[in-house]
Design a protein that fits this description.
With 90 residues, the protein is mainly alpha-helical. The protein has helices at 18-27, 32-40, 51-65, 78-89, and strands at residues 3-7, 71-75. The chain has one domain. The protein contains 4 helices and 2 strands, in the order E-H-H-H-E-H. The chain is 51% helix and 11% strand.
């Protein structure tokens, strides 16, 4: 299952309202995309086939460590999956 990291105090959905979510995230001082990128960047670039797994693992690690006490996982909306599947079969 694809997920994105967000915080409990951000009312916007990073999947469907990314611009609003990103502005709120930055204004709250989290800078979550940059945090994820710093951790994800540590992954071995030679292991491209593991990219999706590694991204999900980083998301899980952030929520498990939860250094701010506010991190949570936001699952990908079903509509996004359906649109992607329809585009792939067209």
């Amino acid at each position: 299952m694809a997920t994105l990291v967000s915080t409990t105090d951000n009312p916007y959905n990073p999947w469907t309202q990314y611009e609003l979510w990103s502005k709120m995230d930055a204004s709250l001082g989290y800078h979550t995309p940059q945090y994820v990128a710093r951790l994800y960047h540590l992954a071995d670039p030679e292991q491209q086939y593991q990219e999706d797994w590694m991204r999900e693992q980083v998301h899980q690690d952030i929520v498990e460590q939860n250094i701010t006490g506010t991190y949570l996982l936001v699952p990908e909306p079903k509509e996004n999956k359906q649109i992607l599947e329809e585009n792939m079969t067209s």
